[in-house]
Design a protein that fits this description.
Length: 106
């Protein structure tokens, strides 16, 4: 069983708990395309941090919840903080792809 942790104005979940809910979430990998292509968590779609912060309404629906992942959790936490202040429902995936225990997709 996993739990969400409140981090300021958004929640966080451990990357180790993502597999339990992978088919039920919208997972966005905000790393740069070359990082994503080197390996990403299955079912994650790539929208780089700069792109999503510049024009979130182009990619996100304020009625849906999104799980945001990066390499270690730093960029995703910053992105979650910014997006949550703009009214988006986001959850930071703490630990990022660097801590993911299963094989990454390429």
């Amino acid at each position: 069983m996993f739990s969400f942790i409140k981090r300021g104005n958004f929640s966080a979940i451990s990357v180790h708990d993502v597999d339990d809910i992978i088919n039920k979430i919208n997972l966005i990998d905000i790393r740069e395309p070359y990082e994503y292509e080197d390996g990403h968590v299955p079912k994650a779609m790539n929208i780089p941090m700069g792109t999503i912060l510049r024009d979130p309404e182009k990619y996100l629906d304020k009625e849906k919840e999104y799980h945001i992942i990066c390499q270690s959790g730093g960029r995703s936490a910053k992105t979650c903080s910014e997006l949550s202040t703009r009214g988006y429902k986001v959850v930071n995936v703490s630990g990022g792809t660097g801590s993911y225990l299963r094989p990454l997709e390429k």
